[in-house]
Specification:
3 strands, 2 helices, homodimer, alpha+beta
């Protein structure tokens, strides 16, 4: 089973990396760009085949290691 | 219109960051973890309302700035 994890900054949190990308895109002439937010995308391959157990394990991984829940949100999608 | 861009390393390319995450998860006792790959996730807000034009613009952004197409793949999802 594979877990697809998206980690994004919470909406109030300043995103300097996203700002830098937006500025670079404007400098390249992409004037239609309004705002850019950068996040992380992590794919985890799991031996676990039980969906509920896998979800619980990945949730723990995010809380303990992958995401900083003070400033970041995360979403988990499980695929077989 | 919003573009969701996933940038991932091509399958043959070594991913030391993903390896480090996998090792850290094993050290924390998550033994069900097989493999981890880390990628980037970028959300771009566009003023453009025409879907085809937006897709073409984001495709150009990825090729010129966001992704290194020698070692990375990217996928684009457009949402209204």
């Amino acid at each position: 089973m594979k877990a697809r994890i998206h980690i994004t900054l919470k909406s109030g949190v300043l995103d300097p990396q996203g700002r830098a990308i937006a500025n670079a895109l404007h400098a390249l002439g992409f004037d239609s760009v309004d705002d850019v937010r950068q996040g992380k995308y992590i794919e985890v391959d799991l031996k676990e085949s039980d969906k509920a157990k896998a979800k619980a394990a990945v949730d723990q991984m995010c809380g303990k290691l992958l995401a900083n829940t003070v400033i970041e949100n995360y979403t988990i999608d499980l695929v077989d």
